């Protein structure tokens, strides 16, 4: 397989993946709509990422996964599809519902419909799934063993009680890594669309005999991440606030945690899925195998930028947010030999060094917060 189509290939993960595949001798075609939310108003002129992948040798098709003719053009002569194109952002998905369904589900349906009913040369499909399909991660109760809490109640969070409770006895829980056999119960529209997307690709891929792989990416960060998107990417959002000399207001009590995985590790895992037969028809977590709380993230960024902004714990919260989730990497290590190479401290240092060389735009994070407030999703 030498000809690889990457949808969303001008984005954060896609651009890094494109460059590495090109360096390894692959012919890369990118299908991307250059969304202004991610790329700004004039990406062909202003985006260093876009110009890097074009200068690097990728063939670029400006188009949308929601348009059948764009898919037809992009699929011609391709040996594999890495389907990254998606609307992202847990919070935004709770009020931009139609857009998330149209792009993430209907766009994937168009791909699968063409593969089912048209002549093509595609021999493998990789789909970017998400840790969001799990909702809350996996926990252990001393009385009831492993449990999967449902969404936290508004009543509990309004009085500052943010931790998950055992759904049976309501006692406190111990957080454990979430494996691929854990319960799937997304708590956001985004998570639901990624679950459906993953299942569609694996189901149709199996019926057509096209090896398919789903990667459940955790929170990805690193050089090249959009600094203008106020809806997703906590390190970018916080960095833009800091570089604009604005204080950071942290949700809940700051102890909510995520698994932050460096972009190079995501690229390495994805290429393993593309090249190894052991990946066929499997789903894999991809993370750093360690939870990092949000307050730690903010403090590390402040330290790296030598900033004097204030970090405030607000007690505010967003409906649909989870408390904790980090990946069990046993399966991807066993079948694909993948282990993350970058610690959080090394990764955040690289990220901050990259940010220092970027032109920082006016932050629009307050816009996303006001949008949620107006719909009763931010308390």
From TrEMBL:
SUPFAM superfamilies: NAD(P)-binding Rossmann-fold domains. Signal peptide: none annotated. Coiled coil: none annotated. Residues 4-139, 177-287 form the NAD-dependent epimerase/dehydratase domain. InterPro entries: Epimerase_deHydtase, NAD(P)-bd_dom_sf. It comes from the Bacteria. It holds the Pfam family Epimerase. Belongs to the NAD(P)-dependent epimerase/dehydratase family. PANTHER family: DTDP-D-GLUCOSE 4,6-DEHYDRATASE-RELATED. This is dTDP-L-rhamnose 4-epimerase.
